[in-house]
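Help wanted!
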Amino acid sequence: MVTGVTGFVGSHVAKALLERGYRVRGTLRDLEKAAWLVNNVFKDYADTGRFELCYVRVIAAVDAYDEAIQGVSVVAHVASILTMDPDSTKVIPATVAGATSILNASMKEPSVKSFVYTSSLGAATMLAPVAAEKALWKFAGEQRPHFTISSVGPSVIIGEALNKAHNEGDGAWIRTLYDGNTAFWDSMPAIYAVDVKDVAVIHAAALLDPEVTNARLHAWGHKCNANDLLVVMRQHFPEREFIDDLAYQTVLHISADFSEPLALLKKWADQDGWRSLEDSVVENVNSIINLA
Ligand SMILES: NC(=O)c1ccc[n+]([C@@H]2O[C@H](COP(=O)([O-])OP(=O)(O)OC[C@H]3O[C@@H](n4cnc5c(N)ncnc54)[C@H](OP(=O)(O)O)[C@@H]3O)[C@@H](O)[C@H]2O)c1
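Answered by r_m:
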């Protein structure tokens, strides 16, 4: 089961599992928004019953997932409220309730063997507590579930979008640079960037690999900044005029232990290291052009 299957990350997590021969149940709150999945991107899987959708109206409701969880063996909880509403009371309690509600549903379903929660780099680096991942580990410590729990903490995620909507809005990082919109980059002069396909493989591995238990998997990829990304864009898309380099770009000096996520990329995708920044940027821009 993959929550947030209509999203940028959720659709790639579903794809990684389908490509490895698993059946996927995607949960969503708006069936119309998912038409592209069953009519296009996952049509063959949907037509053969290997990909199905399940409507979950309010993820924070106590019994929200009780029906969707039936018969499920692994759970990827990718959906999250991403409104960036400055009023934290409209975001944090519902996000924590969403995580708790799906964990409680998993506790009631004996078939569940593993659970992965999509967190973020921020949960490992910000001084302010990131409530939903804290709730996850509190649950793991107190409830002693019959399934393994892991979290994947991505940095800025870039790469091929499977749907046009994923290249729109403030969270479409490469699209903002492609359009010359620097609002995000002015406030973020150095980042780590990771390919969405790496993030998806690490989710799949955390769900399927019996050796992964209670892991915090930092999926950060490459240190870079807006100017590094612009270099790749200019080189591969010379027909388009991009903005000039931004001032005050720098390099991050934080790091984490990436040995386990990198070993999982090797084991589950036969890949040495993170996908290259160049490939990620080129695939992202190609998806902007091809899905326009
Ligand atoms: N993108 C990044 O750079 C990045 C970096 C670090 C971590 N993450 C994490 O990755 C996860 C997925 O992000 P994304 O980039 O894939 O974002 P996205 O494309 O906006 O997808 C978000 C998904 O969550 C669903 N969702 C949002 N609010 C919901 C609600 N109230 N009830 C039910 N479903 C809801 C959306 O459903 P609808 O389609 O119905 O809106 C969508 O399926 C999030 O947990 C995010 O924090 C992302």
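OP: Thanks! One thing I noticed: The two ends are 30 Å apart (CA to CA).
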